[in-house]
């Protein structure tokens, strides 16, 4: 009897606890066009780049990375969503309105990610800094709702919003992580644009998105530091968790304390665990191999003054 009960319970348990989690997750990281500064510093007629810190961040949590190119066909983006287990929109300085750029590619990816989730397929998306701002732009049907602000090169603790502890992003965080997040300067901010709660409300995004933490810029303007979609596994953070362990520019306030590294690992583990709940695969191992970041070599950019120690540059 007990034995039969167990047999009956095992499939149920695995469905609920993710015993059948995907342990070979692949994350697509969207590339973006080079800023004029980068084009001058790194001549090579490159069409796009991905900072290596995002790649290492994802790899350290147990996933592999596929770079997503800009200026491709709609079917390229649809096929990628069908092949990877989650997508990350990195920070940077790309324009939202450039034709064939970062935001145009993201619009395609976001559309397919939403369709997947609407169809009951768990498909996570993460945006960091510009990528977080981009999520608001996409959710607002390509309306730029950002406001000018000053939070460049400052590390801060988070100010949680009431109810943050029932959000997906923080519900399972340990007391130790929550204490570090709220009391130490562990989140790296490098932005001249902010999203305020009023901006979300005005764009009618407050019904779908839950603001979980805020901060104040150097002028005292309160901005959103983290949010998540209420229904779908879509997350945005205005700060840069990937910089803590991987970016070392001497004049930048990247938090490198032992606790800051734990915070970085918390966010990376969270997102990759979300991706483990998705079972997409490339059509064949050969196609997977051909898409992985291992086909490219990182360039040491930090020694030439870049805020990124290493970048992947693409020509196609
Ligand atoms: C970039 O492209 C231009 C025009 O095709 C060419 O003249 C130049 O040599 C290229 N630069 C590099 C660094 O490859
Ligand atoms: C996009 O690709 C087309 C060719 O397929 C090219 O003509 C165009 O310049 C590219 N646009 C950008 C922004 O790179
Ligand atoms: C969330 O935090 C509030 C206030 O600190 C507390 O009253 C509540 O019990 C917490 N909820 C959960 C699910 O931990
Ligand atoms: C949080 O932990 C619970 C219990 O282990 C788990 O069911 C849930 O999926 C976790 N939430 C997230 C978002 O990982
Ligand atoms: C965080 O940084 C601010 C500004 O640099 C500083 O005033 C504050 O003391 C720091 N807080 C901690 C806990 O180190
Ligand atoms: C965004 O919010 C700021 C401050 O709350 C406000 O000044 C600005 O007008 C808002 N912009 C939009 C597009 O809602």
UniProtKB/TrEMBL annotation:
Catalysed reaction, written as an equation: (6S)-5,6,7,8-tetrahydrofolyl-(gamma-L-Glu)(n) + (n-1) H2O = (6S)-5,6,7,8-tetrahydrofolate + (n-1) L-glutamate
Swiss-Prot/TrEMBL keywords: Hydrolase, Secreted, Signal
Query: EC?
Result: 3.4.19.9
A GO molecular function assigned to this protein is:
gamma-glutamyl-peptidase activity
Q: Name one GO cellular component term.
A: vacuole
Signal peptide region: 1-21
Which residues participate directly in catalysis? 129, 240
Subcellular localization, per the record?
Answer: Secreted, Extracellular space
Organism, scientific name: Cryptotermes secundus
Pfam families associated with the record: Peptidase_C26 (PF07722)
Origin, by domain of life?
A: Eukaryota
Query: What is the protein name given in its UniProt record?
Result: folate gamma-glutamyl hydrolase
EC primary class = hydrolase
Family, according to the entry, reads as follows: Belongs to the peptidase C26 family.
């Amino acid at each position: 009897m007990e034995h039969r009960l167990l047999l009956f319970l095992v499939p149920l348990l695995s469905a609920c606890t993710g015993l059948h989690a995907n342990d070979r997750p692949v994350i697509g990281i969207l590339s973006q066009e080079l800023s004029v500064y980068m084009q001058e510093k790194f001549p090579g007629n490159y069409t796009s780049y991905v900072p290596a810190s995002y790649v290492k961040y994802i790899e350290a949590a147990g996933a592999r990375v596929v770079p997503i190119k800009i200026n491709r066909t709609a079917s390229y983006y649809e096929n990628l969503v069908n092949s990877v287990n989650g997508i990350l929109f990195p920070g940077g300085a790309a324009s939202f309105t450039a034709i064939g750029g970062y935001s145009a590619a993201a619009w395609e990816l976001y559309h397919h990610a939403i369709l997947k989730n609407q169809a009951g397929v768990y498909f996570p998306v993460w945006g960091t800094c510009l990528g977080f701002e981009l999520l608001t732009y996409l959710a607002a049907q390509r309306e730029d709702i950002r406001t000018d602000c000053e939070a460049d090169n400052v590390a801060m603790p988070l100010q949680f919003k009431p109810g943050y502890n029932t959000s997906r992003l923080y519900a399972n965080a340990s007391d130790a992580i929550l204490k570090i997040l709220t009391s130490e300067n562990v989140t790296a901010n490098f932005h001249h644009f902010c999203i305020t709660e009023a901006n979300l409300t005005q764009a009618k995004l407050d019904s779908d998105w839950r603001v979980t933490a805020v901060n104040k810029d150097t002028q005292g303007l309160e901005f959103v530091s983290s949010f998540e979609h209420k229904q779908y596994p879509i997350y945005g953070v205005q700060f840069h968790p990937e910089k803590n362990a991987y970016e070392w520019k001497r004049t930048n306030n990247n938090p490198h304390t032992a606790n800051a590294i734990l915070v970085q690992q918390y966010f990376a583990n969270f997102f990759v665990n979300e991706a483990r709940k998705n079972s997409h695969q490339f059509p064949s191992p050969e196609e997977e191999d051909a898409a992985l970041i291992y086909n490219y070599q990182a360039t040491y950019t930090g020694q030439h003054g870049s805020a990124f120690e290493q970048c992947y540059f693409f020509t196609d």
